[in-house]
Amino acid sequence: MAPQLAWIGLGNMGRGMSKNLIEKGQLDKPLIIFNRTPKRATDLSKSLPTGKSTVASSVEDAVSKSDIIFTCVGDDAAVNEIIDAALKSGVEGKLFVDCSTIHPETTEGLAKRITAAGAEFVACPVFGAPAMAESGQLVCVLAGPKAAVEKVKPYTKGVMGRATIDFGGQPVGKATLLKVIGNSFVLNMVETLSEGHVLAEKSGLGNENLHQFIETMFPGPYAAYSTRMLSGDYHKREEPLFAVDLARKDARHAMALAKASGTQLKDLEVADAHLAQVKEHMGVRGDIASIYGAVRKEAGLKFEN
Ligand SMILES: NC(=O)c1ccc[n+]([C@@H]2O[C@H](COP(=O)([O-])OP(=O)(O)OC[C@H]3O[C@@H](n4cnc5c(N)ncnc54)[C@H](OP(=O)(O)O)[C@@H]3O)[C@@H](O)[C@H]2O)c1
Fold this sequence. Notes:
Blueprint: E1 5-8, H1 12-24, E2 31-34, H2 38-47, E3 53-55, H3 59-64, E4 68-71, H4 76-86, E5 95-98, H5 104-116, E6 120-123, E7 126-127, H6 130-135, E8 138-144, H7 146-152, E9 161-168, H8 173-203, H9 207-217, H10 221-230, H11 233-236, H12 244-260, H13 266-282, H14 291-298
Parallel strand pairs: 1-2, 1-4, 2-3, 4-5, 5-6, 8-9
Antiparallel strand pairs: 7-8
Bound molecules: NADP nicotinamide-adenine-dinucleotide phosphate.
């Protein structure tokens, strides 16, 4: 009999990931889903085939009925709140898997509390945009006790992701440490693309010519973000794909880790300053791709292209 799974957190990432668990995770019971704002859970449940999901009324309700509980929520405080609620009742023998991007110390703190309560914990942060969560193309980073990691693997490669980075047997914080360092690459990529496109426009090369080079030389995420910039998606969309507040949380974690380790991430400081301008210009609608608007404005162009 397959274990009973629950999914907590149905934002941009969680909706696609839970859908793939249902479609490809070999579940023999409906996936139990929960979201702080209930409408997101009921809307998702309605969009899924009948009988494939059930909406829990609370974190405790979801956890008490499940063997493996996945969480994917905004930030460190959100995961801590959910685990606090989960640990109010007996969790012995259960397995918690956190897919959120959080500080490695927060991850280690979760592991301590969860294992003290007799349950297991695996960190499983993911790389990839919401479109990749939707299509099951994420890269999942797994860390924690080897036996527990093995229990999570059947839901990663080929289900939620295209690949896993396996840190099985290593401390859980290693997974989120890689995730935070890895996300500094993403932030720097968006900064580089933004500066390049502004220079292409102002120097006379032209954005389409630069885009052709990006598509040829750096296909994948570079080309995808370049398209979001040139199409104006970075300022037009009502709901961000990679929200400015989450991007700044990632930058904050990376810069704090650098400081604690006696080094600096100067590129990231530049990108984060642009994100601060994005927040000022667009509020919570701001997206990581909107860095393009901030760089445009600095160069005397309009934020919106
Ligand atoms: N977007 C990306 O490109 C991307 C890629 C890889 C990893 N990540 C990481 O994955 C996680 C989720 O990202 P996302 O893009 O899905 O975020 P999102 O669309 O902003 O959704 C955030 C989710 O967290 C929930 N939440 C926030 N604060 C909460 C709290 N205090 N208690 C309970 N639930 C809370 C939200 O519930 P409500 O619906 O009630 O607000 C929502 O379900 C984040 O850690 C992010 O850094 C994001």
